[in-house]
Amino acid sequence: MERLTIEDFKNYRFLSGIRHSPDGKNACFVVHLMNLEENRYDSTLYILNVESGKTRKLTSSNKETQFKWLDDENIVFTAMRDEKDKEKSEALEEITELYKINIHGGEADKYLSFKKELGTYEFLFDGSVIATVTFDSNSHELLGLEGEDRSKELKRRKEEKDYEVLEEIPYWSNGSGFTSRKRSRLALFNSDGSFKNYITGEFTDVESLRINKSKDKAVIIATTFKDKMELANDVLIYSDGKLSSPPLIAMNYGYAGFLDDEHLVLTGSNMLTYGLNENKQIFTSRIDGSDFRNLSPEMDLSLYNSVGTDSRYGSSQEKTTDRGFLYFLTTEGTDCKLRRIDAGGNLDEVISITGTVDGFSVCEGNIIYIGMQENSLQEIYSSGSQEPLTSFNTGILKDRTVSIPERLVLKSSGSTDIEGFVIRPAMFEEGKKYPCILSIHGGPKTVFGNVFHHEMQVLSNLGYFVVYCNPRGSDGKGNEFSDIRGKYGTIDYEDIISFLDKAIETYAEIDSDRIGVTGGSYGGFMTNWIIGHSDRFKAAVSERSISNWISMYSTTDIGYYFASDQIGETPWTDSEKLWWHSPLKYADKVRTPTLFLHSDEDYRCWLVEGLQMYTALKDNSVPARFCMFKGENHELSRSGKPLHRIRRLKEMTEWFGRYL
To answer: How far apart (Å, rounded) are the C-alpha atoms in residues 272 and 280?
Structure first.
């Protein structure tokens, strides 16, 4: 057996996007693999024969990430394979190319060309295409411009790339860059790809698009705003060339689909009781908005997979409808399950595993899903078996030392215990003392689960205990447990430290004099908080952190509503409360050598948050190092460029190695 190393995750296969063919006989999915030489991910389409379980590679250009079934035997996907198309794109022309390929073989051929940048799209019954497109109200429309007028506009766009004008909030978005006056607008295209008309206005931002089984209606979730985006959004229906707004209860909707051709199914929350993090309920209504009903008034579950790991890549379906049911993922405890609910509110558990359902597809009741079974990498499974249909990752870890997370429970004096895990050093020997890393998840409304986590296995193989838990504020245990508004750094801090003490008490081999702490996002906030309130940690690695709630409020893409919701005040209503909950307030008390890891395009926890804390430590003569990753955002540890992810782990492990 060889020790698992940082570079080993270049061999992992990440699976995403699985979807049945219309007849249910086959499924298509994407396989991603790190390409270190070109510092990117190679992404390829594969076909799974549902009956036999056999898979085969469909494409070979290594750049196919989005696809759609055109019929039972043909798939379309977006690509930029023609050199002339690439040149147009580089010249800032708006262009999208769809290629078609038969699943039984042959080359992909160009199928449709659009003179707009498409996001989500669907084929309607008459062959026309309804799609979201990028739209900037500060730019002139290229459609209809020809010759010198078109050249002038392209030249103007090139010149304007050196400027950003902000006229609204939010003005940027993590992973998308500057967004002021930019929208995802709904448009209709003819069957030959030519533009027909816009469906929504220039200030309406479309968040989701789905069509019914008859392909003659679409339901969208959208937000219309100028100057300031509010959190309540709208559900709109497109039918017979017209857009209507059914009179539904105002709330923040997360999903809208068709339960059948005449009924909608929606998820939403009014955020009145538990704020932004309130678990959404499931509703149904007729398409005209009548007979609006809550199907899940007693359900208190998050309707998505919030179990964190750095061993996924790509997006997958988390909700869909089939035969009168809404199928959805839900985080419960430390696992992610698949459930379904019908129009009568009858709730069933469909897939329950130790681990996570990462994405799924349903066709006439038959389910296939991408899963991470207990401490293993992703494979594809069917609902009828615990054994995987695929073997993309089964041999990768076979010759590596992998430690099994051991569940540990901290009994609570309240109503809910604190659950977590301890990973022993890979070469563990009883009676020998080992250093320990306390790891804290982001969110805070996410959860650590019993799934494979590359970073933690690397630390284990370097000789560390790794301790991690789900304190109050985490997901998986309902609204009351996850609600820490106005309490950041208090009850959550107590839970984390008490869990660490429980681990030290339980595992005699943990050296309590050699403990480090790390975390990202909320975990970065808590790392900053901990080192300002305790000297017991000999080293810290703070990633994409929050240090100052006052600056967080006014600089990040979610700041103006997230900070005020989570802390309970604004800089004008009670700046002292925001400051009291800010780790920067206590930075002069820090004695822990700290490494800060941050991305320069992280607009969720902006660069200034890490820099403020770093400057404070340096000014107070505390050993500190700041490593900035250019061109990366908040998702560096999960989907950053491969070489940057390797450098991140090297920075972390070398820092802990130096001080522990």
So the answer is: 11
